[in-house]
Design brief:
Elements lengths: L6 H18 L8 H16 L9 H4 L2 H13 L10 H18 L8 H20 L30 H21 L1 H7 L7
Helix pairs in contact: 1-2, 1-6, 1-7, 2-6, 5-6
The structure holds zinc ion.
Zinc ion binds next to helix 6.
Length: 198
């Protein structure tokens, strides 16, 4: 059975993409520590979220009740690598997340919901990009019924969970993340201001 990349690859990819986004779109007004922490959490959830269409996803695995729901949810979402692995699905989830954050904003006044939303969406998009490098490909343009993969020749793509992912892709992401954080350490730290911005 074809599966997604491992959860840790997706989590690492999500935060690496977040760091890259911060370099290209620096947060000029400064952010609170609360925003930074919630944004990282949202980014990690976003990095795993598309795999809710997979009954064995890390998302569902932890509780038996979720396992049952996972199987049901996977059917509802059209099986693995369907709606939640497309731009349409990302837009729908993004819309729902927008309203959820709006609803939660009153109980987290020091958190910038806008930045948290972007961190979440970057997590989702990073997931789709990473899965694009795997054999199965990603149905980016659903309802158009084709899956995109890089490189186009399927046999050159990654088999998930195999040594290339674990010994090449995952370490490369870690190195990339360390290089970015190292090179832009001062900028990243300067984003975070602990005083409350209103
Ligand atoms: Zn996936």
């Amino acid at each position: 059975m074809l599966e997604s990349m491992t959860g840790r690859t997706h989590d690492t990819a999500a935060i690496t993409f977040l760091a890259i986004a911060l370099i290209f779109y620096p947060v000029d007004k400064g952010i609170t520590l609360a925003t930074a922490l919630v944004a990282i959490l949202a980014n990690q959830i976003g990095g795993l979220a598309p795999d809710i269409d997979q009954p064995t996803a890390p998302f569902w695995r932890n509780l038996p009740i979720f396992r049952i729901f996972g199987r049901f949810g996977a059917k509802l979402l059209g099986g693995h690598r369907f709606l939640t692995h497309s731009l349409l699905g990302a837009a729908l989830v993004g819309y729902a997340a927008h309203w959820l954050l709006k609803f939660l904003q009153p109980i987290m006044p020091t958190v910038d919901a806008y930045l948290v939303w972007w961190a979440f969406m970057i997590g989702i998009i990073s997931h789709l990009i990473m899965d694009t490098f795997t054999k199965e490909g990603v149905p980016w343009f659903l309802p158009l019924p084709f899956k995109l993969g890089i490189p186009p020749l399927r046999s050159l793509r990654l088999t998930t969970g195999k040594w290339v992912e674990n010994l090449v892709v995952f370490p490369l992401l870690i190195v990339l993340l360390f290089l970015i954080v190292g090179a832009y350490y001062n900028e990243i730290v300067s984003f975070i201001h602990t005083e409350v911005k209103r």
